[in-house]
Amino acid sequence: MRLRKNSYGFGAIFDADRKRSQVLELEKKASHPGFWSNQREAQSVLRTRSRLESDIELDARLAREGQDIRALAELAEEGEEVLADLTREVEKLEQEAQHTEIRMLLAGEHDGSNAIVTIHPGAGGVDSQDWAEMLVRMYLRWSERSGYETKMLDYQPGDEAGVKSATFLVEGDFVYGYLSSESGVHRLVRISPFGAMGKRQTSFASVFVYPQIDDEIEVQIDEKDLRIDTYRSSGAGGQHVNVTDSAVRITHLPTGIVVSCQNERSQIRNREMARQVLRARLYERELAKKREQLQAVEDAKLEIGWGSQIRSYVLHPYRMVKDHRTKFESPNADRVLDGDIEEFIYRYLVYRGMQGRNS
Fold first, then answer.
1. What digits encode the pLDDT tens for the residues 323-337?
2. Are 155 and 237 in contact (CB under 8 A)?
3. What Å distances lie between residue 325 and 22, 51, 138, 308, 311, CA to CA?
4. Does the chain have fewer CB atoms within 10 Å around its N or its C terminus?
5. What angle do CA 279, 281, 284 make, to 5 degrees?
6. Is 139 among the domain residues?
7. Which helix (H) or strand (E) holds 188?
8. Could you tell me if 287 and 304 lie in one domain?
9. Residue 91 class from Cβ within 10 Å (0-12 exposed, 13-18 middle, 19+ buried)?
10. What is the domain count for the chain?
């Protein structure tokens, strides 16, 4: 009886000492008198601290469970009837360790975000629409099993059965990181319940997962990043505008954005207006970055059909689910379609991590 080996080891997975140091730093921030002056930043700090404390507590719990397993193993060696208890505890520890290892593999910018999932049927007519609805159910069941909240955002029923399109939100820690492994084309092979001759039918559906990104983008301008020049206004405005250095030009050094204002008689007012223009320019720049990020994800979509599937679900003539990226297979297709996809997610995240290290 032994735990399944992995390439990390518990110490590397949890790094509890480093996380304790991070919690102490965050507690110092939280005790600062001006901590709540920025509500969004304060809430982000508290969420981070909560996650770190959860990981530290999990590390301690797994250490205790490891000690219990060693004690049971010693009793088994002495001839005690504890094999059933030992097997159950080892399986429990393996599941918790795997779940935590997955968390450690989620280091992408948006991995901690909620997820927006969109499912569309592909080639295959009514069979594919039915298949798309089966996938909707599979992910809703996975979310329920994982303790996540879901909210249906759009649901277009099919003409005869299934769905033409479905979009739903899954809310919880690291949901996007988990479900990003599911983006792609999913293929189903089965005896069609809609065909007249009982023939085997191949159907396709696409699953696409977006991170939920806040519409609000906070624009912070550091004074040391600005070069502010004043000069004499050259436009109309009367004698005062023409003979004083009331015009203002602000250069944002990190981005090279230059804004100017000379319409107001007061240099103070021109400076204020120039700052407003700069803030708007920087805000639009951040929005453009967000659009580029989502477009890059959008461009990764594949044609919904032959040769582009990431996973196949075979229900006839045998029952098996196979991921074509990791080559992992499960013979229990019914459990997978009921939301038991944790192992597929884990295998893909390990695969993605290995690909990243080899690139």
1. 999 999 999 999 999
2. no
3. 36, 31, 20, 11, 8
4. C
5. 110
6. yes
7. strand 184-191
8. no
9. exposed
10. 3
